[in-house]
Amino acid sequence: MRITEHRMVELAAQGLSTARGRVASSAEEMTSGLHVSRPSQDPAAWSEARRAEALETINKGRGEALARSQDRLDQVDQTLGQIGSALVRARELAVAASSATIDPDSLAAITSELHELRQSALAAANTQSSDGEYILAGSRSAEQPFDADGVYHGDDASRSIETRPGLEQAVTVSGSVLTASHGIDIFAALSALETAIGTNDKGAITAAIDTMRDANQQVSSARSDGGAKSASLLAAQDAQVQLNDSLVALQTRLIGADPIAAASELAQHSQSLAAAQAVAQTIAELTRP
Amino acid sequence: MSSLFGLLNLGASALQAQNAGVAVTSNNVANASTPGYSRQRLDLESQIGMPLVGGVRAAGVDRLSDSLLAGRTRANTGSLNVADAFSSAMLDVEAGMIGPGDDLGTLVAGFFSGMSQVSSSPTDQNLRDGAVQSANELAAGIQRHSAELTAARGDANQRIREQLKEANRLIGEIAQANQAIVTGDDPVLRDRREQAADKLAGLVGGTARIDPDGQMRVTLSGGETLVDGAHAAQFVTTPDLTLGNMDRIEVVDGSHRRDVTSGLDGGRVAGDLRVRDHALPEALLRLDQLAFDISTSVNDVHRQNAGLDGDTDLNLFTPPHDDIIGSAAVMNVNPDILSDSSHLATAAVGAGPGDNQGARALLALRDQRLADGGQRTFVDAGIQIVADIGRSAADAAVDRDFFKAQGDHLAGLRDSVSGVSLEEEMSNLSQFQHAAEAQVKFLSTVDDLLGTIIQGL
Known about the structure:
The complex is a heterodimer of chains A (289) and B (457). The longest helix of chain A has 55 residues. In chain A, strands 1-2 form a two-stranded antiparallel sheet. With 289 residues, chain A is mainly alpha-helical. Helix content of chain A is 69%, strand content 3%. The model of chain A has no long low-confidence stretch (mean pLDDT 93). Chain B is α+β, with helices and mostly antiparallel strands and 457 residues long. The chains are: A mainly alpha (289), B alpha+beta (457). At the A-B interface, α1, α2 and β1 of A face α2, α3, α4, α9 and α10 of B.
C-alpha cells in the first residue's frame, strides 16, 4: 500500500491527539478523584453510585430524625426522673408526717415542701423541647399538657419514626403515663397528700405512703419504657452510621478513582505521549523536503 | 527513413512531453497538502510513424481516483456524522443534567429526607420550612431539566436549519461543477465536486454516483434526487406545529415537494434529527411522567392529612394538567404552602399538630414503585432518566469510534490511490528532467549534423 508523506503526518497527528486525550483523561481522573464522573462513561456504575448517593441522603435525614428523637427521649427520661425523685421525696415526707409525735411547725414545713415538689413535678411534666414542643403532650404537643390542677389535656398518641429502611418504632412517651389511665393520677395523688398533711389526716397520710410508692413505680415503668425505646434508637443510630459508611464506600468503589492505578495510568499515558511526540518529530524530519 | 528535420520534430515533441511531465509533477507537489486533491499522472503516448521515427507525445492528464472507494468513504462519513452529532448533542444534554444540585435522584431523595426529618418533630418550624424547601427544590429541579431539554431541542433544530443551508450551497456547487464539466473536463473541478459531495454526505447522507456521461447524481437514501446533472433540488425548512413547532424538512424540486423529515438517515442532520425528534422528546416525556407521578401521588396523600392549623384537602404540588405532557414544565409547590409551611399536612386529620402520620404517609411513597408505570421508585426513575441519556450518548460514541476507525482505514486507502507522495514525485521529476536533458542533447546532435551538412553544401 502506498503511504504518502501527507498520510504519515496525518497518522502522527492522530497518534498525538489520541495520546494527549489519554493524558488529559488520566489527569482529570487524578485531580477529580473520580473514575466515572458522567453517566456516559459507565451508565451502570454511575446509576448505582447515584442510587447509593440518594440512599445516603435519605439515610442522613433518617439519622438526624433519630438523633432528634433520641434527644427527646433523653429529655423525657430526665423529666420522668425529676418526677420520680419528687415522688420518692413525697413518700419520705409522708412517712415523716405520719409520725404521731410530729409538731405542727414541722407539718407546716412538710406541707410547704410538698407543695414545692408538686409544683416542680408539674413544671417538669410541662417541659418543652428546644423547638418549643411539649414533650409529654402526645400529639397535642403545641399546648401545655398539664394545667395548674395537674389535669392532663394531651392525648395518648405515640409518635413513630422510621428507624431502619422500612421499619418504624415509637419514639415518644405520652404524659398519660402520669394519669389514672396508667394506674395513679400522680398530680391528684400529690394534691391529696398535700391536703392530708395540711389537715394532719393520719389515715390519709398513711394510705398515701403506698400510693407514692406505686406512683413512683408507675413513673419508673414509664422511664423503663422510654429507656428501651432509647436503647433501640441508639442501635438504630449505630446501624445508620454503618449504612452511611457502606454507602460512601460503595460510591467510592463504583466511581472513585484508585489513586495508585490512576497515577500509574497517568505515567504510562505520559510516556505514550512522549513517544508519540518523538515519532511525530521523526516523521516531520523524514517528510521535510 | 526520416529526415534530419523529421528527427528535429521528433525531439521537439518529446521535449514538450517531458516538459508537460515536469509541469504535472510540479502541480502534484504544489498540491501535496491540498484537501481533496487527487494526484495526476501524465499519459504519455507513442507517436505512430515510420519505423525508427515514432516519438512520444503527451496524450492527456489522468486524475487518479477510485469512485468505489469514494462512495464507501461518503457512506462511512454519513454514518460517522450521525453518531458524532448525536453523541455530541447528548453529551451536552448530559452535562446540563448532572451539575451540582441538579441530580434528579438526589433531589427526590432530598424531598423524602425532608419528610423523614419533619416526621421526628412535626411542629418544628425550621424542619417544616426545610421540608417545604426540599419539595420546592425538587419541583424547581424538574422544571429546570425540562427547560434544558426543551432548549436542547431548539438548539438541535437551529443546527439542522444551518446545516441544511450549507447543504443547499453544496448542492448548488455540485450542479455548477457538473455543468462546467460538460464543457471541459477539468480534474480540479472533479476534485472540487468530489469534495462538495463528501461534505454533503457528511451533512445529509445519501449517495453520489458518477454516470458514464461524467455527471454526478446525488440522491438521498429515500430516493429523492438532490442533484441531477446541472439540475439542483433544495432543502426547505418550515416550522410545523405537529412537530412541536420544530422544522419540517422538505426536498423541493420545482413544483415537487417531498417531506423527508423522518426519512433522512445519514449525516449530521440525521444525528440532530434523532436528538430533536426521538431522544429528547422521549427524555422529556419521561420527565413529564415523573413530575406527573410525583405530583399526583404526593397530592393524593397530602390531601388526606392535615397541617398544623388542621387544614386539610390541600395539594402540596400544583396539580398537573390531565395531559401528562408538559407536567414537568409547570411543576410547582402550592404557593400557600410555600409561603406558610404550617399548611404542610404532617398530621392525620383530627389528630394534634404533633402527630406525624401525614409525614410518614408521604415518606412511605419513597419505597413504592409508583413511577414508570409501577416499574420504579421515584428516586430510581429520576436516576434512570439521566442514566439513559448518558447511555445513548455512550452507545453513539461507540458507533462514532467504529466509523471513525473505518474512516481512517478508508482515508488510508484513498491516500494510497489519490495521495501525492513527494518521494515518488521527486523521482518522476528527476526522470522527466533527465529525459528532457537527453532530448536537448539529441536535438543538439541533430543540429550539429544539420550544421555539418549545411556547411558541406
